[in-house]
Amino acid sequence: MSNTAQVSAGRRIEALLDDNSFVEIGGYVTARSTDFNMQDKETPADGVLTGYGTIDGNLVYVYSQDATVLGGSVGEMHAKKINSLYAMAMKMGAPVIGLIDCAGMRLQESTDALEAFGGLYFNQAQASGVIPQISAVFGSCGGGMAMVPAMSDFTFMEEKKAKLFVNSPNALDGNYTEKCDTAAAKFAAEETGIVDMVADEAAILSGIRELVGILPANNEDNMSYDECADDLNRICENLDGYIADPALALSVISDNGFFFEAKSAYAREMVTGLIRLNGNTVGVVANRTVLYDEEGKETEKFDAVLTADGAAKAADFVNFCDAFEIPVVTFANVLGYKATACQEKKMAKAVSKMVYAFANATVPKINVITGEAYGSAYAAMNSKSLGADVVYAWPGASIGMMDASSAVKIMYADEIASAAGEANALIADKAAEYASLQSSAVAAAKRGYVDDIIEPQDTRKRLIAALEMLFTKREDRPAKKHGTV
């Protein structure tokens, strides 16, 4: 390793990778530019350590920016080193992990740096959907560098020192850092939806190791599984009591309680993440109505509706799973769409992207209807009509256009108006009839929209069995360059 090994850039690599596995590439590279007194400046490794190593024996490629060299700024050779790393990772079919601590573009090298930096965008675009890309922001990541974590599949951010921004808070009209720190980790995680996890440095590096262990190395790798030490037929007692917060329920269903939640602080009414079932990695999308803290206390409640941010979050996650041949399971409990003027501006487009993602995905797809599933919002949540291979419903699930009472009030408006004091009894009677004939799980199953009605406690073993049956699934789509949704 180069002589920068003792600074944070080197320590992060050592903490991330298996002991003594890192092999540095390009350790002797320095800046070429001699303009603006650059010849008098030392630029060891041109401010970025690049190389390869292993995580639990899995090959990975890593670059780590060195803030002690010109602030970790991206110069011509700095960017070319990262680009060369991407080229090698693509040939070998292994993930790229970027440990970011960067002052931005190196002004002394101007267009040379800009040209090489543009190559980084190109390489990230080419690698997207071919190899996993993981970024972790430990220091500054501003301007054009902000696109790098945004183009990554998973992004981590240090909770105190990291800054992620395109324009600094003070450059925004009417804003300043003390008013709203738009560069802070909290903002990036909760408002922009770029960041999957905010934590301290040690937890981030541990999280990356955990993530690499469950992801395929590339889009043709079918080895992303582990031996399952958990009981395949394990009964999940009281699962219906957990499902309001899927983060808890998924931990119960998954092998040995494993659950990696993606973008956990963003659009919390929609849960996305990875679990293990029979040792296989499975992607999950679920509607949330309650958020519990680590002590099991209710901290926030949500309506059972789709939001624009939640739909976009789900769409991105499903696209990732489909690219890397990871099966998708959904847990649906949705009544409709959130109705506000702000949501209306982007709802249709966001939900259409989610619809397209589910319909376009050719991986095994399973839907479990756990509560109420009404209207086109349910149809958008991986329904049978969107191509779900297997649809299960819990016994108490409701599936239809709307809840029975609302439907009855519309269909029997005249009769209700003339019933006077008997109106409530009439509504109750007709609602019970409507629920039985039109919106019960049994009614949907009779029409073939639900494949089976299962007890909540049997969900784990039924999912495992269905995924085993779907393991060899092959499905084609119409020949085209790509969709335009």
UniProtKB/TrEMBL annotation:
> Entry's PROSITE patterns?
COA_CT_CTER, COA_CT_NTER
A Pfam family annotated for this chain is: Carboxyl_trans
In terms of InterPro entries, this protein maps to:
AccD/PCCB, AcCoA_carboxyl_beta, ClpP/crotonase-like_dom_sf, COA_CT_C, COA_CT_N
CoA carboxyltransferase C-terminal domain: which residues? 224-469
Q: Which UniProt keywords apply?
A: Transferase
Gene Ontology molecular-function annotations: propionyl-CoA carboxylase activity; transferase activity
Out of the domains of life, which is the source?
Bacteria
What SUPFAM superfamilies would the database entry show? ClpP/crotonase (SSF52096)
Question: Locate the CoA carboxyltransferase N-terminal domain: which residues?
Answer: 1-227
Give the PANTHER family listed for this entry: PROPIONYL-COA CARBOXYLASE BETA CHAIN, PROPIONYL-COA CARBOXYLASE BETA CHAIN, MITOCHONDRIAL
Q: What is this protein called?
A: Acetyl-CoA carboxylase carboxyltransferase component
Highest lineage ranks of the organism?
Answer: Bacteria, Bacillati, Bacillota, Clostridia, Lachnospirales
